Amino acid sequence: MRGPLPYSSTENGIQARRRRLGHSEGRTDPNSESQSGVAALNGAISYLAAASAASTARTGGGFPFDPASTLSWSVPLILVGPLTVALMIALGIRTRRPAANLALAAPLVALLACGLALWARFAKDDPYDASFEWINVATAFSGPSQFQSFTTAVGIRVSHLTLTLALAAIVISAGVMLWSRAGTRRQPAPGRFFALQALLLAATLGVVVATDLVQLFVFWAVAGASSYLLLTHMWGEEESTRGARLALALPAIADMSLLAGIAILYSRYGQLNVDQLIPTLAHTAG
């Protein structure tokens, strides 16, 4: 007859049984794991399909982006973008490479704005006008009503014609800026040079999209001044300054003629907005 087992042997047996029980409880069936994974995947796919169907029902199907919703900011960006770039370069950049890189943002931002506007208005024949009043001064208390105040606004017209001209100006400006990155390495004052290029682009776009004669003349004058400053950028060379003076003198005659024509039209009809002025001219004898 065997005697009682030692205490250590008993304890080892108990621990061994516990380990076996623990392993048996911790083991899971691989098939059940794969089935649960497939079920979770099916549930996720079903949820995404339901969410997509609900989104399509809300938006009416197709791509949900509506380019017409961007016109309130994309149309002003056509002018504000290049003007902001010119101001940033003029106030904060002096070296050539950062100025050249930032100057390229002017045609790129304008191209983005024109692209969004073209996308929104491509299938529409009527133009889209954005107007921002900037001068409204009382000039008289009696007489014809159109002469009792002087009002002018910054207007931006988006149509097939204006967008075509704007895109042409943007492409030419981008080409000049790309060439200037390599062809003007020894130009003095590169910050001023590239800021003037961005300003010239903004002025050109302002002339193209103008709806008001005062706006047209202001941007036309800014474009002429920018061209003169670019031509005389190498002011130490006599040939450069002579050509710049000639390029400024000839357009100045046309500028004064344009200003005189605007003054005559306003003094007779009291209108500066092109849309209001053209019907008045068509129905006025003489």
Summary, kept brief:
With 286 residues, the protein is mainly alpha-helical. It is built from 10 helices and 2 strands.
SSE topology:
Elements: H1 7-26, H2 30-59, H3 71-92, H4 96-103, H5 105-121, E1 128-138, E2 149-158, H6 160-183, H7 190-209, H8 213-231, H9 238-269, H10 274-282
Antiparallel strand pairs: 1-2
Helix pairs in contact: 3-5, 3-7, 4-6, 4-7, 5-6, 6-7, 7-8, 8-9
Oligomeric state of the chains in view: single chain
How far apart are the first and last residues' alpha carbons, in Å?
142 Å
C-alpha-based Rg, rounded? 36 Å
Helix vs. strand class: mainly alpha
Query: Share of helix among residues?
Result: over 70%
Question: Low-confidence parts lasting 5 or more residues at pLDDT below 50?
Answer: 21-28, 55-61
Q: Beta-strand level of the residues, as a percent range?
A: 5-15%
| Tally of individual helices | 10
Sheet with most strands: strand arrangement: 1-2
Rough outline: flat
Average per-residue pLDDT, rounded, comes to 78
Report what the structure shows.
The structure is a single chain. The protein is mostly helical. The protein is built from 10 helices and 2 strands. The protein has a two-stranded antiparallel sheet with strand order 1-2.
